[in-house]
Design brief:
215 residues; mainly alpha; 8 helices
Amino acid sequence: MIQFGPAHVIYILEAVRWTVVLSLVAFAGGAVLGLLLALARVSRSILLRAFSAAYIQTVQGTPLLILLFLAYFGLSLLGYRLAPLVAAGLALTLYVGAFLGEIWRGCIQAVPRTQWEASDCLGLNRFQQYAYIILPQAIRIATPPTVGFMVQVVKNTSLASVIGFVELTRAGQIVNNSTFQPLMVFILVAALYFAICYPLSVASRALERKLNVAR
């Protein structure tokens, strides 16, 4: 039996970067999609509101694991064989976008109605209202929950291991299969996830206090 040693630790540590890369890809793509969905949810168009609401409800009601299977195995049946990183990034982008869209929709609607009325009185068009009045205030409200949601994004990247993407969890599985020492391996994996997620949790609480969102 192969003993768990420094080489295995290095292998697991190297996998951390892929967890971080996938998290950043998912959050960047999800942020763009989420903003579009949030704006659609508060749009004056009934069709846009209905479509965005249906998308959010569908994705939020679908397990991320199923989205990963559809992105990797489902698209391959249609002739689009994606690399595991691309498939995982696509599935996580769709997933993160749905949740951020709903978070940010709530933050936009949390801006007092008087701000909309005041901007109407100033003769601002819809774009100017969002750019200069509404979104700057919504960003202040949205920052703490958005940073907090990033913790969930990091942890959810572990599911990408089911389609063969070698991130932190998958690296731990590979090392465990060769050493048969799951306690040591997965304690290290858990510690590394904690090292990534804890600073984000602290940042979320600090931003909430600093921005004084409750007021």
